[in-house]
Design goal:
The chain is α/β, with parallel strands linked by helices. A ten-stranded mixed sheet has the order 6-13-7-8-12-9-11-10-14-15, with helices on both faces. Strands 25-26-22-21-20-27-28 form a seven-stranded mixed sheet, with helices on both faces. Bound molecules: zinc ion (2 copies) and fe (iii) ion. One zinc ion (ZN) binds at residues 100, 102-103, 121-122, 124-125.
Amino acid sequence: MAGVVQGVGFRPFTHALASRLGLGGHVGNDGHGVFIDVEGPAAKIEVFLGDLRDQAPPMAVVDGIDVVALPPLGVRGFRIGLSRREDSRSTFVPPDSATCTECLRELADRADRRFAHPFANCTHCGPRFTIVRDIPYDRPATTMSDFGMCPACAAEYDDPVDRRFHAQPVCCPACGPALNLSDAAGAPIPGDPIAAAAQALRRGEVLAVKGIGGFHLAVDARAEAAVAELRARKHRSEKPFAVMVPSVREARRLCAVDEAAERVLSSWRAPIVLLDRLESTGLAPSVAPGNRQLGVLVAYTPMHHLLLREFAGPIVLTSGNVAEEPICHEDAEVLGALSGIADEFLGHDREIHVRADDSVVRMFRGLPMPLRRSRGYVPEPVRVPWEFPRAVLACGAELKSTFALARGREVFVSQHIGDLENFQTLRSFRAGVEHFRKLFGIDPQVVAHDLHPEYLSTKHAQHLMETELVPDIELIGVQHHHAHIAACLADNEEAGPVLGVAFDGLGFGTDGTMWGGEFLIADLAGFQRAAHLEPVAMPGGRAAILQPWRMAAAFLRACPDLDGPEPELAQRRQNWRAVTELAGHPELCPRTSSAGRLFDAVAALLGVRDQVGYEGQAAIELEQLADPGETGELGEPPGSVVDGGKLVLRSTDLVRSVVTELRAGIPAPSVAARFHNSVARLIAETCSLLRESTGLSSVALSGGVFQNALLLNRAVTELEHNGFRVLVHSRVPANDGGISLGQAVVAGARIS
Ligand code: ZN
Ligand code: ZN
Ligand code: FE
């Protein structure tokens, strides 16, 4: 039997089922999943097989049951066997799971031997992926191997009817890991670590907390001074922080939580969920400045629950890392890395083998749409309805990097690695690839990569090619936006062809320029660029990403009929002339058809901001500024020209309309919303035109710009109104975190 069947209570479940039906035999784990030998009357075995699938434990995913008839051995009674060690490793390690309700009940029960035990877990919950060193997934192959079970825990572990039967990380206060608290110099702080850590939070200090997939930094979410201090020390000026609460009930005090959001918040995956924040929350303004939304997550380990109960309030919880480096996960590195940021360290002696950030999702039409896929989701594979003829490694892009390993009908997409722009992240990327190769026994024969020659992920692919001992490893370059659309297809278990709308920041095009506002006619194997936004100068190249006002200047320069643009951007008057001058010299600045840069320009024109701290910030804030009640569009619809067989959409017309409406005194929130609506209309109308020439009536929307829920919602509405079937993301992010999945399926299609 294959699927997510190890470490999720499958053997005890099988035991209970077989015992109830009076069947004999045994069950065990092997490298392929779970194997069961069962004997008894045929009718009962029939019931057994049905229930095996239908009544499986909550975290289990049964992919397939292979049944082989064997002569009966006359076995009475059903027992649970040990794991068979085998070389072929194709089974799944489950994702980490938030504390279950049963364990929570014990945590609060003074009479229970796990009362207030920070590491309580069972077959339905607890750490998994982040503690597994190797498979088969058994205790000796996890970071719990250092902890010998006490007799009481061993009895539960061996008792087939116990909730902790073969729960690999099972432990209690007598035998499990222990918390510790130290100051910034590493000196132990005496007393109860939870009580003392809560005290530190109350004093407004920054607390480093060792969680499931790494260290976090925590402060009192209601104390402005503490939150501002954390921002200053982390050099993180504006990016919103997430807030952890003990329960969905507490989340309701901060945000609008509907039923769908409640299901996601309280699920065992326990991601950060972006939700509309309420008017008065009592939270410090610096938690999420300028944002209508707030990222909220419910406590997902007993330790978090104990800390929040002791502290009695919401806490800011953000990744414990230095600037853009990966989240810290090793005790040895954390003091050095975070000593300038955290005042105290709440740690423990259970090792984290694999780092995993918190996952982030946004709700779209009642379903979670992943923005960052990590803890709680990884390493669950993305299953596709076709076969990879050979094993594939896909190296991903650069920002929000992930990689993917594929074989059979599964793609194992890695956790969020981070921006592959520094050595630490590259190291983490390489280590991650090695770990996945070992864990899933995949030796890639094909390596897929982005076309951008300067991405570290591309260089890693070439490095593998040059150094691997695999004799004829094949390299396949995949165009960035084709990968986005292929990711969306795979996300929906489809193969196309489809009209693909890829709107994002920047991606390397096949003509050597930077693309990002693309309409592709695509299937998995290939694509044709059918239409795109008009290329506009990016004055100063990379500087234009961090200073959206430069994009505004470039767009305005492309509208010569608009005289005197300075009033819109008075604050940059000094540099203005130099930049417009620069924009006029195509040989001096790269040109891009990027939709992300168009959103940047409009954000700058509407006074959202001139500078950003991270890619996409201005566009995110533009969405927040937009009045959701505004249904109108900008006065003039954008025109188009045909150039080299491609439809070029005049995005400068949109910018001209924005300026005209601003000058007419229309408030910025209305103009922002009209801009969104006009872009949605442009998408729908362009797709309608392409449908006439191609007959295609399905549209896939992907790329980082579609993290914008307002734009996505309006675009889907318009497209559906025009009779299209629309595919959006629900398993991997629309941003570059989904690129590795897209590269993998494109490579798979090309070698088929
Ligand atoms: Zn549990
Ligand atoms: Zn114990
Ligand atoms: Fe992209």
